[in-house]
Description:
By secondary structure, this protein is mainly beta. The protein contains seven helices and 53 strands.
Amino acid sequence: MAQTNERLDVSLTEKIYIQLSSGVYATDQDIWFKAIVVDSENHLPSTTSRVLYVDLIGPNGKVIEHKLTKLTSGLGNGSFELGKNYPVGLYLIRAYTQWNRNFGNDFIFEDYVNIVAPNSQPEKGILHTLTTTELESGKFLLTGEINSTIGVTNQKQIPVYLNYGVGKDTLELKKKDGVYTLDYETPKNVDWITLSIGENPDSYHSETIILRKNSVDVQFFPESGQLVHGLLNKLGVKSLGTDGKGACLKGTVFNDKGQPISDFSTNHLGMGTLTIQVDSARTYYAKVSEPNDSTGTTTHIHPLPKVSPKGSTLSVSRVGEKIWTRISSNHLKGKIYIKVACRGKDYFLLEGPLKNGKLVKDMPSNELPEGILVFTLMDQDKQPIAERLFFNHKDGEALDISIQTDKNVYDRREKTQLNMHILGPPSASKNISLSVLVLNKAHFQPESINTIRSYLLLDSEIRGDIEDPDYYFRVQTPERFEALDALLLTQGWRNYQYPIKRTGHTFFWPEKGLEINGAVQVLRNKSNTSEPINVSLATFGRATKFYTTEADSLGRFGFVLDDDYGPKMQYLLSTVDPKGKKVNHNIRLDTISLPEVTYTQKPIIRESDTVVKAVVEAGKERLRTEMVFDSLYGVTQLDEVVVSDHFLTPERAKLYEKYGEPDVIISGDDIRDKEKEWSYGLYSILLFNYGDQIAIERFPDGFMLAHVRGGSREATLLMVDGKLLENHLYEYVPSMSPEIVERVELIKYAKFFKSRYLTVFPQADLFEIPSLGHIISITTKGGVGVQAPIRPEPGTLKAAISLFTPVKQFYAPKYDKPVPSQEDKPDLRSVIHWQPNIFMDQTQNTSSSFYNGDILGEYIIIVEAISEDGRLGYATKEYSVKEKKGLNEKPDPSN
Length: 895
């Protein structure tokens, strides 16, 4: 393979940033995204990988959609099309390259988005009634009845899964007097608990119960990892509420004699600092009041870390253009060292002798990169003693983006002209890529989303969730420097350790495109010991293509295909000798499974925030307007196609609308669970386990035909992966491997059956075509189809490969007239414009234009940028859409 000849730096990983349009989406919207993949050291757009995998994971922790996004110089884009049948809740969006899987989960991008349903009634939750009784301090009794609307009324008992952050539990609730009753004692000191019912998206329901709304967790983090006797110690303070967000509070530190030592407070993000001198003979605690308690009557006690009699402190601060380090120690002697590194690269090694247990050193900040610096204190033997993280803000490092609009205020459907410019010398950065997003400001969540700068410079470098990560980069908040230092004191353990090391036993090569890799099991004999093996490949996409390569001495081979988009593509591999004659060798393909999902259960407060309310109300207005418009102008609204208690992707919803809703759904997991050693394929499992629903007719020549059981033996057609199967392929279905089956659905009395029957049997006598019949629909994993092999055949192998996901075009209407007429359908878009790939010209200027919709209000333009040399940019601009009267027609002078 070509890959094996490449020289790869196995410590240079890739960082992945996914730009999203919002943190909240309605089920009738699309999730648009741009992917930016950079190297982890210098943030240069990566050329290592050319394939990015992006997954949408549901509230039950299952992958719902799996996208293959093409990367060009580290850039790609795509979307997820939501559906009305998606369950509401928190969804996880994750992205990864195969190369990054060598280094564990730390290099998988993850972000949670909230999906809400505007067309449904307010969520009632799992419990119809709920009573919480505090049995003792920190322990509660939960009692209630399961809501009868969630589709579990016919079961004798139901499993309920409980998750309270630090632990899990499972209950089996039995029906008594027609209801399921919950009676559960929580563990001590649990602030919230999430109840879930259902093991798959078809039946998943979840509800979070907040037990202690005013509970606050307060922690103290010494600057150098420990409180040291006799030294001045700086501590970070972090306070979190039950909702996981920072809590603003005040408190006082006392010693064990009850003497006050120092007051402290936390900011709106729940972080602060204090400095105290401590004695190892004493213990210390803090007394804090509950958030929103102005009287201070309700206080809680939180202990400080134990004081160590011996140790060292490492303090870092910035004064002007220099960064100062101060070391104090009551036990180190002689020379010490201070190493300064950023993203795994060493920049300085400071050294000097301690005098009276102290050493002060400085260095120029402009000779260090922007981002998190790691200061490591080492003793005279260069053994690490303490570590401190510090953020280096570097003026002039960021791309300074100017956004100009031709007006401040626009009419409905009026065109907006947008001009963008990078301030600074024209030669400062080359090949700058920008994305432009325009959306209703009411749907914008600046405090809960990452930007390109906050993610790559901050969030990707440290563990844990960062609340309002871009706050630390907004120039209009001068206190952000102190807040960022408090963040690194309280959350300053790194996301990964440098130098980066490969984890696991499997090695993942970086993908240079759509690849097919494998090995030929050479059947050696005396006559062919040195004979080379050629592997031929034929792909059957929109056009048939042929490739040939020579396997190496170990039988390994690899193909990089031409770029192609769409569903899975069938291909055929075969082995031939140098003369082109087919040889009888076994072919084995490399298979790569999806990474394990690490969905983190988070408490969800029932009261919607303002952005959630805005998204829901906008969705309701879109639905209401569409119904009114259609009724006024002669469009008949069809009843919504819904399969009760089953999760529907848009593809499945379209399938059901075309052929009819399934009456029986058998999951692939159930089929595999019922497989026996003597089973000989799909039909044998269906025959012996689902005989009440499916009959298998056997013919003398061994041919088998499946029928959906009904009052009489009515005609049954077969469908695989959403397409009716051609009759000559029916013989392959009985022996299909259960390993490739996703589900089997029985559609009884399918819609327009006569025309469906003619599609499969075009030569049938028109007078003998049955008017009624059924369809057995089989969905295979990844759409590999009916002819996917159970085992590779010697000399040849037929399989399928996933292609790049087609990039959906953003709908951008154009209006010849600014004011809509009565016949025009209202334009109620919340995302007005999405242009993920714009490139600057040599003068570092670019422009874009778009038409506004019909919703009045404030709008925000968001521009993110990255240059060829790794500089990052982020800027926003606001404008208004108002009634025509009183419009300001002058150009925007603000820029």
